[in-house]
Write a structure and sequence with these properties.
The complex is a heterodimer of chains A (345) and B (159). Chain A is of the alpha/beta class. Helices cover 29% and strands 32% of the residues of chain A. A 10-stranded mixed sheet of chain A has the order 3-2-1-16-15-10-14-13-11-12, sandwiched between helices. Chain A has a 6-stranded antiparallel sheet with strand order 6-5-4-9-8-7. Helix content of chain B is 84%, strand content 0%. Chain B is built from 6 helices and no strands. Chain B is elongated. Classes of the chains: A alpha/beta (345), B mainly alpha (159). Chains A and B meet through loops of A and α6 of B.
């Protein structure tokens, strides 16, 4: 195994630090600096401009909570990553990984209004996803929910009296996947990439950018995106070679894509079960390259996971990309790239 | 004499026009109740068969009278609750109450609950509609005769 650590200097240039072959590369991974302080010193709500995803989410909240979220974003500077509502507890807005108190208590009415708005006034049509713990509000906006589960024969048949809503706001960080894409190109599109990090670091955002890079431009590849929770494929207007399998269970989506769409690349988010692993092995065995993500806070923790052990036994992935948290206001993570033996970098 | 005849004619004409307006209003009121009934049934069928979101169901509902178009326009733009609170409807208090209750509750539950809600509201509206139809028949008779009879009595009293 060769382990390489990308470290960001000023957001534009980075050093590919290898024990054997140190060299400089150009990349723009954590280049959020231009966005990060755009709300700074803007204390009036009218002055604060939101991106299109933030605007859409704010429309789903009761006025009081929306205003509190905008204020929090304005005073703390940065993108809103998440908005959390907990019954009878204050609103919490996550901005650049910091949890900011919104100083507004979430009432039962607030919760009901928000859930109803997230479901487009049709909770029944979101029944299946609510059972799985989330609501897909369309356009890549997803809300995790929990409350009183109604279980029948060991399976959740409904969730009542929702007490927590966590709305994730998608975004595009253009250029964030450039170093990974360049590496894939250098490997002649034969890289099978597994992206790992702890939750909320930006795996989906990175994967989304990678999907856009792979499926657009002059070297576009036939890319199948298995978007189980309809959050991976938002804002992909440029991706003209992307086929989106939205709402498919992951393993079924991968199998369907391989069987019917003859993709060159398959992209999927958050692999978890052994069925997912089997589907990935089938795809890789069929000669399809694959990019996926998984929860793990370090490489060591990653390789200890049974599903990864199984995949590694068959050599399914040859590149592992970790998003390692960096204590810096301007950037959230550095890329740690680990290559399997035999793969060229 | 000519003045008398003219006055009588005007009085009778006014009475006939007034009858016509009253009957037309009652007709509109009845049509609106029928439209509410049809809308609830349409929503129920769409949820039952396709689990279509409310917004899409409202967009596709087109079988209603002219008097209901204000309401439908508001519902399409701002949702059922807003429409039932703000749109101009001349239906009776009871049908308005049922509509408000329906608008407030629809979309908050799972499929079975929604179907039950639709059934409940539809049954209530159907009963109301039956009552309104009976009343309409009685009222029409009264509206046709009363103003004209009143006009005739006034003419006789003054002559």
């Amino acid at each position: 195994m060769t382990r390489l650590l990308f470290h960001d200097i000023g957001g534009l240039y980075g050093i590919l630090a290898s024990h054997e072959h140190p060299k400089k590369v150009l990349f723009s991974v954590l280049n959020e600096k231009e966005h990060a302080y755009k709300y700074n010193n803007k204390h009036s709500i009218k002055d604060i401009k939101m991106n299109r995803y933030e605007e859409r989410v704010l429309k789903l909240l009761p006025k009081e909570l929306a205003e509190a979220s905008v204020k929090a974003a304005g005073l703390n500077g940065g993108f809103i990553n998440e908005i959390r509502l907990r019954l009878n507890k204050p609103l919490v807005v996550t901005i650049n990984d910091d949890n900011v108190n919104g100083w507004v208590k979430c009432t039962r009415e607030h919760m009901e209004y928000t859930v109803k708005a997230l479901c487009a006034n049709s909770m029944y049509s979101h029944f299946n996803t609510i059972r799985e713990g989330y609501i897909d509000a369309g356009g890549g906006i997803r809300a995790g929910i929990c409350g009183q589960a109604v279980a029948e024969q060991g399976k959740i048949s409904a969730v009542k009296d929702i007490t927590s809503v966590s709305i994730r706001i998608p975004r595009r960080v253009i250029g964030s996947a450039d170093p990974i894409y360049d590496m894939i190109r250098e490997m002649d599109y034969r890289a099978n990439v597994l992206i790992y990090s702890k939750p909320g670091m930006g795996k989906t955002t990175l994967l989304r950018e990678l999907a856009v890079k792979l499926s657009s431009g002059p070297y576009a590849k036939r890319t199948a995106i298995v978007d189980t929770r309809s959050e991976l494929s938002c804002g992909m207007e440029d991706a003209f070679m992307a086929d989106v399998l939205s709402g498919y269970p992951r393993s079924l989506g991968i199998e369907t894509a391989v069987r019917t769409l003859s993709p060159q690349y398959v992209i999927c988010d958050e692999i978890m079960t052994s069925e997912d692993a089997d589907a990935i092995l089938t795809a890789v065995g069929s000669g399809v390259s694959l990019c996926a993500s998984i929860h793990a806070d370090s490489y060591d923790a990653l390789v200890r996971q049974p599903i990864v052990k199984k995949l590694n036994d068959y050599g399914a992935f040859n590149v592992f990309v970790g998003l390692i948290p960096v204590k810096d206001r301007e950037k959230r993570y550095a890329l740690e790239i680990t290559k399997a033996k035999g793969a060229d970098l | 004499m000519t003045i008398h005849l003219t006055g009588t004619a005007i009085l009778l004409l006014s009475a006939v026009s007034y009858s016509y307006i009253l009957i037309k209003n009652e007709n509109k009121k009845l049509a609106q109740t029928e439209d509410i009934c049809a809308m609830i049934l349409y929503i129920k069928n769409n949820i039952e068969a396709f689990m279509t979101p409310i917004g899409d169901i409202i967009q596709s509902f087109s079988d209603y009278s002219d008097g209901f178009s204000d309401y439908m326009e508001a519902a399409r733009k701002h949702g059922l609750l807003y429409a039932s609170e703000h749109a101009s409807l001349i239906t009776g208090k009871e049908s308005r109450r049922i509509l408000n209750e329906f608008s407030r509750k629809i979309g908050c539950g799972y499929k079975d609950e929604e179907i039950r809600l639709c059934q409940y509201c539809h049954t209530q509206m159907t009963e109301l509609l039956k009552k309104e139809r009976d009343e309409f028949a009685k009222k029409t008779k009264m509206y046709k005769t009363l103003p004209i009879m009143s006009a005739v009595s006034i003419v006789l009293m003054l002559s």
